[in-house]
Amino acid sequence: DRVGNPGRYLGSGPCTIAGVAYPVCTTAANLDQRRALYAQNPAEARLLGPVDRHTSVGRQDYRGLKLSFRRRAGAGVNVAGNYTLSRCYGNVTPTGQPQISSGFLKPEDPDFDRGNCEQNRTHVGNITAGYQTPQIGGALGVLASSWRVSGIVSARSGSWLTVTTGRDIAGTGISAQRLNQTMDDPYGARTIDNYLNPSAFAYPADGTLGDHKINSIEGPGYWTMDLAISRLLPFSDTRNVELRLEAFNLLNNFNWGNPVIVYDQATFGKIQTMAGSPRIMQFAVKVEF
């Protein structure tokens, strides 16, 4: 995890910092002068901007329960499945380097940025099934033997989201600041055009951080069904041809993407993307010799 060097909010009126008068005390222009290092030693701190400091204060805790089954039903049928119920809770996980201006919102209090892990899915389930036709003699066997059918249904709950603003309301220079949550239920009708309720949020007062908890909103879930049909055609003891047809997202289910979570945007709370892919079908021929 990372800890930055936050700026201080000194109000919206005039002020003097290190002998320099500013008509508006808290602006982007004097952010460096409002940093804690500048207050300690202006002569040396003027050579520095934001400081990207990496520490080991972050932590995440994971708890999970996994259930699975497998059954060979006979007559060429196999069925298996698994389900995972889990909870991951901890500090946010940064990606990429450097992380200037994207650290903890309150570097002196890393727990302010503790919440659900964005990569965790509370519910994850999969069911697979397969069937292979038996070897049949005679003319019927030419058409009905050596077919294989397999499918999988996968489902998972949504990812964890945080409502943010692109504005530096706190005057710290740190991005992705959160809002105040004014209602216990942040959701709208959970439709494409109204997944989140804009009235459930409000900008915090200047110089303050919002109370909306990080990663406290669950996005839309996801499910899909894939199917594969193949047939093995033997030509000799060492030569075979496999014909294979595969369909991904067989039912062409439209899985919603995550809603817009930047409060400043006119499309806030609306879903404008698709998760995964539409139905894709492909045909393959494999020769073994």
Tell me what the structure shows.
It contains three helices and 22 strands. It has 289 residues and is mainly beta.
Q: How is this fold's topology laid out?
A:
Blueprint: E1 2-3, E2 15-17, E3 20-22, H1 36-40, H2 42-45, E4 53-54, E5 60-74, E6 77-91, E7 114-116, E8 123-132, H3 138-144, E9 147-156, E10 160-161, E11 164-165, E12 177-178, E13 180-181, E14 187-191, E15 194-196, E16 201-202, E17 217-218, E18 222-234, E19 240-248, E20 255-256, E21 274-275, E22 280-288
Antiparallel strand pairs: 1-4, 2-3, 5-6, 6-7, 6-8, 8-9, 9-18, 10-17, 11-12, 13-16, 14-15, 18-19, 19-22, 20-21
Unreliable residue stretches? none
Major sheet attributes:
8 strands, antiparallel
> Portion of residues in helices?
under 10%
Strand composition percent: 35-45%
Order of helices and strands: EEEHHEEEEEHEEEEEEEEEEEEEE
Number of domains: 1
Number of helical regions: 3
Compute the gyration radius: what is it? 28 Å
- The N- and C-terminal alpha carbons lie at a distance of 54 Å
Report the structural category.
Answer: mainly beta
Summarize model confidence as the mean pLDDT.
88
What is the approximate shape? elongated
Total strands: 22
Label this structure with key terms.
41% strand; 3 helices; eight-stranded antiparallel β-sheet; mainly beta; 289 residues
Short overview:
The protein has three helices and 22 strands.
